[in-house]
C-alpha cells in the first residue's frame, strides 16, 4: 500500500497529525509556548513588585526584595494577625458566655422540676373523654408546623445553608503570629533582612539612565557583568554582590573578604536566587502551558 502525505484527506482513518492540527486551530488541547525575556524576573528586581529595587535587601534564603515593599508586606501581615486575634478573642468570650448561660439554664430547669415535684401532691385524674382544652393542648404540642412553640421568631431558611436549623456557626481558629516569606514560605523578620549593595557599571560613554541600561551592575572584584545567566552571591558583612565564580576561585581559598580583608564564614556567603516569577521558575522551565478542553475524536 502506497504512503500518503500528512494532509491527505482521502483516508478513512482520522490520523494523530490531523487531530493535533485540528485541535490547535480550533482552540482545543494544551497550548504550549516558550516564554520570552519579558516573562522572567531580572536578578536585581524585587520578588514582590517585580520592579528594580531602589533599596535592595535580601533574606537568609537569598530572595531579593525592595525594602519598602517587604516592610509594607510585614506590616500588613501584622495588622491582619491583630484583626484575626480580636475576632478569635471575641468568639472565645461568646463561647464562655454561652456555656455559663447553658449551665444557669440547666440549674433553673432542675430547680423548677424539684419545686413542681414537691408541690404536686394529688395527681390529675384521667377522664374517659378528654376535655376541649386538653385536646387543644395535645393538638398544639403535636403540631408539625414551624410557626408554633415560638419557632415563628426563628424564621429558618431551608434554602440557605447558613440559615438552616441544622447549620453550625463556623469557628475561627487561633491565628498564627509567625510571618512567612511570600516566596520561600519560611519565617521572616524585619531585623533579619540584609542590605544589598550593587556595583554600577562604570562606562563614561553610556549616557543612559541606570534603569534603562541593559548591563547595569558588575562584580566589584572581577568586574564581570551581572545578569540572570550569571550565578551571584551576596557577602553578608558589606552586602556586595559578587559572582559565584569569584567566590569559588578567590574568596573560598582564604575565606577573606577581598575588599575589606574581613574574615568570612560559610553563612556570610548567601547565594542570590535569580530569575523566575510565579509563572516561570528560576530559568529551569521556560515553557508556559495552558490547559484547554481536549478534542474528542
What coarse outline follows from CA principal-axis ratios? flat
**Beginning-to-end CA distance, first to last residue:** 25 Å
Spatially, the strands of the biggest sheet line up as 3-2-4
Main sheet: strands, sense, barrel: 3 strands, antiparallel
Strand content: 5-15%
Provide the gyration radius in Å.
37 Å
**Helical run tally:** 4
Question: From the helix content, strand content and strand pairing, which structural class follows?
Answer: alpha+beta
Mean pLDDT across the residues is 79
**Helix-residue proportion:** 25-40%
Could you give the count of β-strands? Answer: 10
Strand and helix order: HEEEHHEEEEEHEE
Instruction: Name the poorly predicted regions.
Output: 125-129, 277-282
Q: How would you portray this structure in words?
A:
With 297 residues, this protein is of the alpha+beta class. Helix content is 29%, strand content 10%. The protein contains four helices and ten strands. The strands form four sheets. A three-stranded antiparallel β-sheet has the order 3-2-4. A three-stranded antiparallel β-sheet has the order 8-7-9.
Amino acid at each position: 500500500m502506497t504512503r500518503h502525505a500528512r494532509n491527505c484527506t482521502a483516508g478513512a482513518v482520522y490520523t494523530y497529525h490531523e487531530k493535533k492540527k485540528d485541535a490547535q486551530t480550533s482552540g482545543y488541547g494544551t497550548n504550549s509556548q516558550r516564554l520570552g525575556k519579558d516573562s522572567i524576573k531580572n536578578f536585581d528586581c524585587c520578588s514582590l513588585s517585580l520592579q528594580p529595587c531602589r533599596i535592595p535587601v535580601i533574606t537568609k534564603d537569598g530572595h531579593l526584595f525592595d525594602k519598602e515593599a517587604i516592610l509594607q508586606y510585614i506590616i500588613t501581615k501584622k495588622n491582619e494577625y491583630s484583626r484575626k486575634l480580636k475576632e478569635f478573642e471575641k468568639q472565645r468570650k461568646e463561647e464562655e458566655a454561652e456555656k455559663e448561660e447553658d449551665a444557669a439554664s440547666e440549674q433553673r430547669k432542675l430547680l423548677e422540676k424539684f419545686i413542681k415535684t414537691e408541690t404536686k401532691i394529688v395527681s390529675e385524674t384521667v377522664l374517659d373523654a378528654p376535655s376541649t382544652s386538653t385536646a387543644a393542648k395535645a393538638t398544639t404540642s403535636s403540631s408539625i408546623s414551624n410557626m408554633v412553640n415560638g419557632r415563628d421568631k426563628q424564621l429558618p431558611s431551608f434554602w440557605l445553608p447558613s440559615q438552616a436549623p441544622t447549620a453550625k456557626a463556623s469557628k475561627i481558629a487561633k491565628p498564627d503570629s509567625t510571618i512567612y516569606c511570600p516566596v520561600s514560605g519560611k519565617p521572616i523578620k524585619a531585623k533579619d533582612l540584609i542590605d544589598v549593595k550593587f556595583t554600577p557599571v562604570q562606562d563614561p560613554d553610556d549616557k543612559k539612565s541606570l534603569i534603562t541600561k541593559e548591563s547595569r551592575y558588575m562584580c566589584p572584584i572581577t568586574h564581570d557583568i551581572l545578569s540572570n545567566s550569571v550565578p551571584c552571591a551576596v557577602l553578608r558583612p558589606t552586602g556586595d554582590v559578587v559572582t559565584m565564580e569569584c567566590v569559588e576561585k578567590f574568596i573560598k581559598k582564604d575565606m577573606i573578604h577581598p575588599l575589606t580583608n574581613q574574615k568570612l564564614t560559610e553563612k556570610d556567603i548567601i547565594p542570590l536566587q535569580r530569575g523566575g516569577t510565579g509563572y516561570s521558575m528560576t530559568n529551569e522551565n521556560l515553557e508556559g502551558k495552558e490547559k484547554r478542553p481536549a478534542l474528542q475524536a
